[in-house]
């Protein structure tokens, strides 16, 4: 898979990197932990520029985050409260919980989005509450772009420096991603099992 990805990136260039990073945010066919180190490796081979790789990866990823931000805007807090009133167990939220999260997000939205973009598996999800709770688009774009640029830079530079060993990045990050996903699923299942409407 790595070799095919390298071939694809060599042929598709920056547009291919941006497209894969967009898709990785919308429906992850290949995680960024593989795409960006492979693109960084290509830059290390002189086929692409490292700066161009980082800009392309960041642009595609921010575009994918915008997709989920607008999904959140469509849901909006009022609709989420109505869903919580009807389907609270499956959302593991009561309407009062929505109000509490809304207040918390108003105070911490910038930090939440910035740090959320640096956490594997949660990077995309943080865009949804930003839309749901009405974070302004310029503010969302600022913190999303900052967090995304840092993430893509770290991965691309790792691939650039590690050269042929760039697969090591995915080897280290994939288990972390799996653990985070496992914890999120376990927490959700626990909340469904113990949820009580009050």
TrEMBL record:
Listed Pfam families: VTT_dom
Domain of life assignment: Bacteria
Topological type in the membrane: Multi-pass membrane protein
Keyword Kinase (UniProt): no
Domain VTT: 30-160
Key words, A-Z: Cell membrane, Membrane, Transmembrane, Transmembrane helix
Cell location: Cell membrane
Ranges annotated as spanning the membrane: 12-30, 50-71, 112-134, 140-162, 169-190
PANTHER family: ALKALINE PHOSPHATASE LIKE PROTEIN (PTHR42709), UNDECAPRENYL PHOSPHATE TRANSPORTER A (PTHR42709:SF6)
Protein name: Membrane protein DedA with SNARE-associated domain
Annotated source species: Sphingomonas yabuuchiae
């Amino acid at each position: 898979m790595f070799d095919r990805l390298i071939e694809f990136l060599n042929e598709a260039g920056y547009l291919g990197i941006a497209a894969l990073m967009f898709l990785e945010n919308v429906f992850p066919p290949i995680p960024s932990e593989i795409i960006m180190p492979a693109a960084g490796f290509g830059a290390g081979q002189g086929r692409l520029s490292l700066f161009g790789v980082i800009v392309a990866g960041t642009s595609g990823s921010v575009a994918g985050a915008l997709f989920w931000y607008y999904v959140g805007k469509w849901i909006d807090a009022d609709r989420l409260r109505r869903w919580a009133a009807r389907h609270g167990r499956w959302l593991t939220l009561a309407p009062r919980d929505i109000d509490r999260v809304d207040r918390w997000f108003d105070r911490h939205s910038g930090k939440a989005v910035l740090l959320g973009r640096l956490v594997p598996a949660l990077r995309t999800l943080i865009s949804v509450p930003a839309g749901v709770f009405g974070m302004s688009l310029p503010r969302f774009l600022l913190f999303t772009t900052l967090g995304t640029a840092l993430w893509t830079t770290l991965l691309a530079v790792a691939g650039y420096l590690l050269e042929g060993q760039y697969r090591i990045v995915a080897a280290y990050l994939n288990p972390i991603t799996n653990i985070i996903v496992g914890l999120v699923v376990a927490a959700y299942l626990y909340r469904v099992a113990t949820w009580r409407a009050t």
